[in-house]
TrEMBL record:
Record keywords: Ribonucleoprotein, Ribosomal protein
Lineage, uppermost ranks: Archaea, Methanobacteriati, Methanobacteriota, Methanomada group, Methanobacteria
Family affiliation: Belongs to the universal ribosomal protein uL13 family.
Organism: Methanobrevibacter thaueri
UniProt-recorded name of the protein: Large ribosomal subunit protein uL13
Record note on quaternary structure: Part of the 50S ribosomal subunit.
């Protein structure tokens, strides 16, 4: 089992590393999902996610999808799902091995964390945390 602290990691880079490990059969746990960074312009990032969340059918907006998440842990899970062959049994099995949490649950409080240096945010100037985007979208966590 691989336990990763998402604080200071870039969303796409962390998701690609996570999806690769999931396809290899490893279980992955992501902590502090609200502190994962999304690079780029803040207004553009918010507009992109707002457009996805607001997309609905005219005939019956509550029943028809696609339904996009608002919480930061669910946004991360959805991002990883897009990198897996989710419509095949191999991808669904891999996706079930992913757990993402806002904050650090008690069961993982003193667990040994795995570092992912290729996913670190570094000194990039533009960016926004998933927690900020989620609050702008109306999520409560």
């Amino acid at each position: 089992m691989m336990i990763i602290d998402g604080e200071g990691c870039v969303l796409g880079r962390l998701a690609s590393v996570t999806s690769k490990n999931l396809l290899e059969g490893e279980e992955v746990v992501i902590l502090n999902a609200e502190k994962i960074m999304l690079t780029g312009n803040k207004d553009w990032a918010y507009a992109k996610y707002k457009q996805r969340v607001d997309r609905a059918s005219i005939s019956n907006p509550r029943d028809l999808g696609p339904k996009y998440p608002r919480r930061p842990d669910d946004i991360f899970r959805r991002t990883v799902r897009g990198m897996l062959p989710f419509k095949k049994s191999k991808g669904k099995t891999a996706y079930k091995g992913l757990k993402a949490f806002v904050g650090v649950p008690a069961e993982y409080a003193d667990a040994e964390l795995t570092a992912v240096p290729e996913a670190e945010y570094g000194d990039l100037k533009k960016g926004i945390e998933l927690g900020e985007i989620s609050k702008l979208l109306g999520a409560t966590f």
